[in-house]
Prior knowledge:
Distance between the termini: 48 Å
Largest sheet: none
Helix content: 55-70%
Number of strands: 0
Shape: elongated
Number of domains: 1
Radius of gyration: 14 Å
Order of helices and strands: HHH
Number of helices: 3
Amino acid sequence: MIDETEDKNLKVDTEELNNICDECKEEDESVTQNLILTGFKLCKSCRLSKTIFPL
Length: 55
């Protein structure tokens, strides 16, 4: 049986995997991939621009 706290944690985890970039607020498949690789929710475009211009 699933406890209420486990169900709440599952909802929070799935909300993080919503494929929406933190920088540009666009939806992109690469956001989840970059979240797993780097720990940041950035799309390919924002990740590249942050790599070239790290300000």
